[in-house]
Amino acid sequence: MLKELHIRNYAIIKEVDITFNNKLNIITGETGAGKSILMGALGLILGERADTKSLMNADDKCVIEGVFDVSTYSIKSYFDQNELDYDNTCILRREIAPNGKSRAFINDTPVNLNQLKDLGSQLVDIVSQHQTLDLNNSDFQLSIVDAIADNNPDLEQYKQSYKQYKQTEKLLAELIEREAKAKTDEDYLQFILNELNEVNPLPNEQEELEKQLEILSNAETIQQSAGVAFGALNADEQGVIEVLREIKTNLNNGSKHHIGLQDLLKRIDSSMIELKDIAAELENIAEQTQANPNELERIDARLQLLFNLQKKHRVTNNTELIAFKNEVEVKLNNIGSLSDEIVNTQKILNDLKLHISKQAKQLSDKRTKAIPQIEKRVNELLVQVQMPDAHIKISQHVLSDTFNTNGIDQIELLFAANKGSSFQPINKVASGGELSRLMLCIKSLISDKVALPTIVFDEIDTGISGEAAMKVSNVMKQHSAKHQVIAITHLPQIAGKADTHLLVYKNNNKDTTQTYIKTLSTDERVGEIARMLHGENPSAKVLEAAKELIG
Question: Is 118 within the bounds of a domain?
């Protein structure tokens, strides 16, 4: 329940603190006094969008804070899921800075607007003249039946199954589309693979062929260079090796007498061994390097074939070309595996369809069973709100072989306002006052089945008066015995039932207009209700009538 509401620097409210009780709280005041401002402030802590135009003082921040007793609510799981501190007293706070930045808090922990809205919807239910239009909404009508039928746990399980069914259905469609595209591409992929297999590119092949091409393209130059170098090293008389041999012979005699010459002789020996090895390799290169036009043409053709394939498939070397070939093989193999996946997914979808069919049937059966009880009870409540000749009827149409997010039922709430009238959709036959009273009856009926949050009736009594107003006040009073009710009203009959009566009023001074709110004493209540009955300066008879309404 809402225990306290603190408002600072909002619209024409400088600062007010409001305390509510756990039963029937009535808010009255003259038109324009600021009752709608209270609803706007309450909406902010329930997650509505903020506007800097709502600041009374544009240089100061606006703060709205609501204190709730949540000890009887089963909402601790919400706090656990959102990693928030839980306490039996929950504080929702909203701050709007002059620069337009808005901040939201739950128990002093910053949260986003969606988190605030989710929790707020579990704490407060606002019923306004605008919300009575929900009675025309088929989903809302179905939710009424489900609430009375205690269907919500089963409906939640069904929705999870339905979500899985739709996801699987989407997956199957995607797989079928992929398979169709793959089969369209299959011939092309097979052609590419055959072409690549025929060429059969090998790792490192391109590099080796390029080396061979370089040698064969310059065979004459290589052969001549190696031959000349070999001759210079190994000629009989003037070759480098022969010259070194003579040097070695000349040094032999002197080395017997000089250790330095002995070291040099060893180095000459090493050099001769290395040069003989070089000469042998040069000779081998010169002999093996032969011009071979046919081999040159073969290598050039092979490289050109590889280059063409690489260009065609937008790769730069053989390694990438081989990787591309492997990808093509995988795609061709996957075409076959898609068929298997489609078969498996179709089986899963069929099983899910059977499962949700059973769940939907159970929901539908419970709705069918609950509908007569709902009709009977609402019609009884309509009598209590001075609509003795009005009746409702709930039409249930069961869909065949199809599902929606709520099962297989289409529900329509039909209304007949007078004796002998035919049942018609609510939006065609119900007036604003009738809609308001019907909504009150439905909310009261639901409250007998489920634990409702604080319910706020925002002038839903518009369009009724006299005995009808008295009947409505009785139903509202009965409703408040089980749930906290806050009602903004212009009707003295409803105001007389208050457990706490709050007056909204406005003061004008030379520079500003401010809205205030106060809790009325018994005497003050008599005066306010008398004003609602007859205007200012009520007579003694009107004051007595006001006392009688208070009881």
Answer: yes
Are residues 303 and 183 located together in one domain of the fold?
Answer: yes
Buried b (16+ CB within 10 A) or exposed e, 8-20: bbbbbbbebebeb
Query: For residue 95, what is the domain's CATH number?
Result: 3.40.50.300
Residue 91, token pair as written in the block: 């504080």
What whole-number distance in Å separates Cα of residue 281 and Cα of residue 451? 100
Do residues 297 and 313 both lie within one domain?
yes
Residues 97 and 219 in one domain: no
Q: Cβ distance 57 to 3 under 8 Å?
A: no
197-256 pLDDT per residue, tens: 888 888 888 888 888 777 777 777 887 787 788 778 876 667 887 778 878 888 887 777
- Number of C-alpha atoms within 13 angstroms, CB side, residue 281? 5
Mean pLDDT of the chain: 86
Residue 275 maps to a domain: yes
Q: Are residues 201 and 331 in the same domain?
A: yes
Domain count, the chain: 3
Task: Specify whether 511 is located in the same domain as 533.
Answer: no
Nearest alpha carbon to residue 309 among 296, 299, 319 = 319
Say if 396 falls within a structural domain. no
CA contacts within 13 A on the Cβ side of 517: 28
pLDDT in the model for residue 131 = 60
pLDDT value at residue 271: 85
Q: Are residues 307 and 253 in the same domain?
A: yes
| DSSP bridge pairs for 239 | none
Average pLDDT, integer, range 105-133? 84
Q: For the residues 429-444, what does the mean pLDDT come to?
A: 79
Alpha carbons 502 and 39: distance in angstroms, whole number? 14
% the chain with pLDDT above 90: 35
On whether residue 360 sits in a domain, the answer given is no
Pair 450, 537 in one domain:
no
pTM of the model: 0.63
Q: End of a domain among 337, 364, 392?
A: 337
pLDDT of residue 54: 79
No. of H helices and E strands in the chain? 17, 15
Check residue 421 and report its DSSP letter.
Answer: P
Between vectors from CA 92 to CA 89 and to CA 97, what angle results, nearest 5°?
150
pLDDT at residue 348, as a whole number: 95
Which whole number is the average pLDDT over 302-315?
A: 88
Domain span at 527: 523-551
Same domain, 281 and 194: yes
Residue 437, number of CB atoms within 10 A of its CB: 29
Residue bearing the bigger pLDDT, 334 or 493: 493
Q: Is the dihedral of CA 319, 324, 328, 331 positive or negative?
A: positive
Whole-angstrom Cα distance, residue 341 to residue 349? 12
Mean pLDDT of 390-401: 90
Contacts of 436 (CB under 8 A, 6+ apart): 129, 132, 460, 461, 462, 463, 464
The count of other CB atoms within 10 Å of the CB of residue 483 is: 19
pLDDT tier at 133, thresholds 50, 70, 90: low
Q: Which residues contact 388 (CB under 8 A, 6 or more apart)?
A: 382
